[in-house]
Fold this sequence. Notes:
The protein has helices at residues 10-21, 30-37, 45-54, 127-140; strands spanning 86-95, 100-109, 115-121. Among the domains are: 10-54; 86-140, no CATH class. Helix content is 30%, strand content 19%. The radius of gyration is 23 Å and the shape is elongated. It has a three-stranded antiparallel β-sheet with strand order 1-2-3, with helices on one face. By secondary structure, it is of the alpha+beta class. It comes from Spirosoma arboris. This is IS3 family transposase.
Amino acid sequence: MKLDGSWVDNQLIVTSIRQLLDVEFNALGYEYITYELKKEYLINKKKVYRLMQEHNLLLGKVIRPTGKREFVKFKRIEATKPLEYLCWDIKYVWVHGERRNYYLLSVIDVYSRKILDWLFQIGPPKQQYSSNRLNQSFSTHKPES
């Protein structure tokens, strides 16, 4: 139902949802979509969730950690030479053409702050594959003795 009281077909609402979702770096859930739709329609989040579920527009479920989490606070690694310490960095990159996230895994030298190797793939990096890439990275960038 529109705000003026006129009835609206569900297909029109689904079209509005698709327009809201057709943006770059899309990470909009059904609650935010409901918030945006309420500017034009009289609709609740249960109906938005149902419509998005029927048309496969929902994002994946968010896994929330349980229990107390401990974070490393103010830890600074002091490297005195290249390849003494290496860091891994995993980023999620939205690929608009495929409408999904890819993983960008980078191996960074702490001393020089240069990326030694990187991996860009669909799923999360596999441990065995990541270990092989790290060994290749070591053979390419030999540490100074």
